[in-house]
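RECORD TYPE: inverse folding
INPUT: structure tokens
STRUCTURE:
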């Protein structure tokens, strides 16, 4: 009997189903991609201005709890330069990537100025979810083994003052948070001297200021006009039931899925056309 897969009606039905599936997936992805309501996201220029304004200010004394449960204060890091970053442990994509890249930059800086030349402090800003245990697990997953790198949770009453002094901003929206990725460099007296932006950056942007602070080698100044292009504002989707966050890449995933359907359909039609060319139309075929 004729192969039903070669029936033109069957082919048309498959093509229509694939098309409708693609339309549904793309439409769903567009809806899901609107996780941040219009007008509620963090303004990049305003956030950058606040970040730059922090340069020259002094990091005060704020209580923290390390990932192994020890109470410390930000002033405990005085005496050596300090690199400070902010993360939230529920992030599965950008924060791990950013921390991993920062780790590479820290290794390069250690090679340039010595293993004990400076401290690193990573702060979890999503309270109460960024607990010491969560910060410890985050550091473990990123493979951080630097003896002078501390992961810590700020006291709730200190979080906003600490973030303000370091020039870090985030905005809570109906669907999640906007925030800047930045590493803040603080000198041995606690003064903010440089901001380094982005989940990836040229290594001298971090290494050169640390060489200047530790070894006295002059570092080039930042090009303020070009800073905005190096700032990446990240949008995440928040699930209030679990307290977890995820980067909203749904649109791109679903477009990839839709493209896969289209490619598979085209392959099927080409293959069916070739089989018909070799065996004649279905009506001419006879059972064996």
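DESIGNED SEQUENCE:
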């Amino acid at each position: 009997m004729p192969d039903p897969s070669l029936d033109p009606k069957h082919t048309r039905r498959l093509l229509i189903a694939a098309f409708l599936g693609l339309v549904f997936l793309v439409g769903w992805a567009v809806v899901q991609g609107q996780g941040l309501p219009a007008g509620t996201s963090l303004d990049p220029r305003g956030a950058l201005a606040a970040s730059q304004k922090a340069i020259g200010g002094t990091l005060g004394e704020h209580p923290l709890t390390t990932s192994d449960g020890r109470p410390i204060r930000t002033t405990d890091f005085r005496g050596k330069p300090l690199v400070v970053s902010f993360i939230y442990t529920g992030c599965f994509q950008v924060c791990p990537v950013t921390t991993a890249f920062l780790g590479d930059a820290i290794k390069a800086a250690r090679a340039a100025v010595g293993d004990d030349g400076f401290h690193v402090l990573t702060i979890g800003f999503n309270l109460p979810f960024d607990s010491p245990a969560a910060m410890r697990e985050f550091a473990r997953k990123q493979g951080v083994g630097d003896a002078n790198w501390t992961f810590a949770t700020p006291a709730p009453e200190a979080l906003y003052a600490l973030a303000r002094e370091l020039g870090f901003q985030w905005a809570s929206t109906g669907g999640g948070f906007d925030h800047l990725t930045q590493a803040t460099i603080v000198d041995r007296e606690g003064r903010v001297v440089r901001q380094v932006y982005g989940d990836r950056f040229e290594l001298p942007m971090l290494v050169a200021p640390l060489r200047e602070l530790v070894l006295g080698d002059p570092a080039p100044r930042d090009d303020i006009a070009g800073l905005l292009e190096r700032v990446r504002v990240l949008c995440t989707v928040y699930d209030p039931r679990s307290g977890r966050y995820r980067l909203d890449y749904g649109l791109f995933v679903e477009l990839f899925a839709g493209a896969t359907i289209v490619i598979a359909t085209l392959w099927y039609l080409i293959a069916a056309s070739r089989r018909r060319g070799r065996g004649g139309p279905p009506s001419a075929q006879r059972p064996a």
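NOTES: Residues 107 and 273 are 58 Å apart (CA to CA).
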